[in-house]
Amino acid sequence: MQDIAYNADLIVKNCSILTPDFNIIHDQSIVIQNNSIVAIGATASLANIYQSKDMLNGKGKLVLPGLIDAHTHTCQQLLRGRITDEYPMIWTRIMVPFESNLQEQDVNISSQLSCLEMIKSGTTAFIDAGGRHMQQVANSVLESGLRGVLTCSTMDSGLDIPPTMKSSIEENIHNNRALFNQFHGAGDERLNVWFSLRSIITCTPELIQEVFAAAKECSTGVQSHMNEYPNEISYCLEKFKMRPFEYLASLGVLNENFLGAHSILLSENEMEVIKTYNSKVVHCPISNSGKGVPKTPSLLHRGVGVGLGTDGAGHSGLSLFDQMKVFKSLIRAFSGVPIFDPVVMPSKSILEMATLGGAKAMMQENQLGTLEVGKKADMILINIDQPHIAPSHNLINTLIESVNSNDVTDSIVNGKILMKNREVLTLDEEKIKYESKLAMKELAIRANI
Prior knowledge:
Blueprint: E1 6-7, E2 10-18, E3 24-33, E4 36-42, H1 43-46, E5 50-51, E6 55-57, E7 61-65, E8 67-72, H2 90-100, H3 104-121, E9 123-128, H4 134-144, E10 147-150, H5 169-183, H6 186-189, E11 191-193, E12 195-199, H7 205-217, E13 222-226, H8 230-240, H9 244-250, E14 258-262, H10 268-277, E15 280-283, H11 285-288, H12 296-301, E16 306-308, H13 320-336, H14 347-361, E17 379-383, H15 395-401, E18 408-413, E19 416-420, E20 423-424, H16 429-447
Parallel strand pairs: 1-5, 2-6, 2-7, 8-9, 9-10, 10-11, 12-13, 13-14, 14-15, 15-16
Antiparallel strand pairs: 2-3, 3-4, 7-17, 17-18, 18-19, 19-20
Helix pairs in contact: 3-4, 3-16, 5-7, 9-10, 13-14, 14-15
């Protein structure tokens, strides 16, 4: 019998947990030390082995790996509610004027509000598609305690893009390198910096090749908006006689470190291209539902890594629980009904996309996405002792059908508690909400939106 207990930084006791094979087991404890999970097991068996001054009571709660928003725009919080029920082109009429008028203080408060909303909705890590003043976003992420991947918004062409949003190839690469040099690995490696293309339609072939070359030199990832709109497909077909993913492959730049956001309008050959180069994709169900439905079952069947994203508050809230609900209905109606396959997209697959799929999109599946010894201690606790959740014949199904962001009680990232009993510990919630209201009014006037 062991007389001396090992010291731990944090123990989550008496909880239920989601296992890596998507089963749920009860009466468990999770032991955290030095930012990582060091033990998982029956509470009774671990009680005499580990001790900690910091403890979370998990009674009546389910612990999940933190949700990962694999595509968002933290600079768009102050656009919330503005683009719904608008006729095209939203991008040129509303979003470009909005983004071109963003000042540093706007991005600061928007990114703080994004981090606050993500913490309260169960997201522990995210990939930002990039925008202006990304140093402000980096500072907000570091303060919040979240885990993030950031990049700059990279554009050098496009008739509808104002000159203030376009830069030369040299400037684009310089700006992204500066962000990389300043913040990559910051916050005890919570923050990573990638390179990006805003979209193929706004980047010259020369810029595309330089972006991928710079990312390779820095051993980091590249992301781009891909196959989201018909005009983007037409642009590639007319100019290059190839579809977007085929075009990137022809340039010799596609690899396993590329993430294609949206990826709705994919041809059969493009899905094979993605598989061949082991690139990753991320779907944003609510944002995408007005543009098309992705061929997710075919991608998963090919073994392609697929994550879920929110596409930012301009299109919806930042709740991945909402995205999962909508996604299940979309795929069931679009892919399941025509062939009478009611289980074309099982709840386990959707939950995996929001966790391990997001970790693969971040290129961090060895550290994130499941609750396992040796992985980073990124997790959330959900109050399942509620009438809209319990009792349940299948709790994983109920997670997708009924659980919402307000059911998340606690959030842990890198072993640190960011939210406890719905109280965010790292950010001043009241201050952020107050300043956001003022900033939205000022920005709406300035951008005339």
